[in-house]
């Protein structure tokens, strides 16, 4: 029986489970955030939250990039409306991002329109193998 300890590294796990991942992506930290808007949030307010998210890389140098998208209908999406994937080159860069004033401002400015968020940090893709059977399904379409 194979266990996680049977593998030498994350690439082996992902490839064995048919998730080919180029080696240059293995070190990237993926901070995945799902957003559930309040029912009374207008389309302008939703757009405003998305713009706040998309501005963050220009305000916080430790954030490599961010990808945002609206949900694609999926019966397992748990009611989330939008997703964002924040990319960092290391855990240290993620740790610098969290207390940054621009991150605090974004959270404060977006919170009146949000019912809740779900955050999952995939550390160098190590956790994907452990969570393959227990992942929340959320498909998103990026523009």
Quick structural gist:
The protein is α+β, with helices and mostly antiparallel strands and 143 residues long.
What structural keywords apply?
about 140 residues, alpha+beta, five-stranded antiparallel beta sheet, 5 helices, about 35% helix
Task: Give your account of this protein's structure.
This protein is of the alpha+beta class. Helices cover 33% and strands 25% of the residues. It is built from 5 helices and 5 strands. The protein has helices spanning 10-16, 43-59, 91-97, 101-110, 126-131; strands at 29-37, 65-72, 82-88, 114-122, 139-141. A 5-stranded antiparallel sheet has the order 4-1-3-2-5. Helix 2 (43-59) packs antiparallel against helix 4 (101-110). The longest helix is centred in the middle third of the chain and has 17 residues, at 43-59. It is globular. The termini are far apart. The model is unreliable at 1-11 and 124-139 (pLDDT under 50).
List the helices and strands and how they pair.
Elements: H1 10-16, E1 29-37, H2 43-59, E2 65-72, E3 82-88, H3 91-97, H4 101-110, E4 114-122, H5 126-131, E5 139-141
Antiparallel strand pairs: 1-3, 1-4, 2-3, 2-5
Helix pairs in contact: 2-4
Helical amount: 25-40%
DSSP helical segment count: 5
Count of β-strands? 5
Cα end-to-end separation:
43 Å
Gyration radius, in Å: 16 Å
Low-confidence stretches at least 5 residues in length (pLDDT < 50)? 1-11, 124-139
Please identify the structural class as seen in this structure. Answer: alpha+beta
Helix-strand topology string: HEHEEHHEHE
Major β-sheet profile: 5 strands, antiparallel
Strand order of the largest sheet: 4-1-3-2-5
Shape: globular
Strand content: 25-35%
Average pLDDT across residues? 74
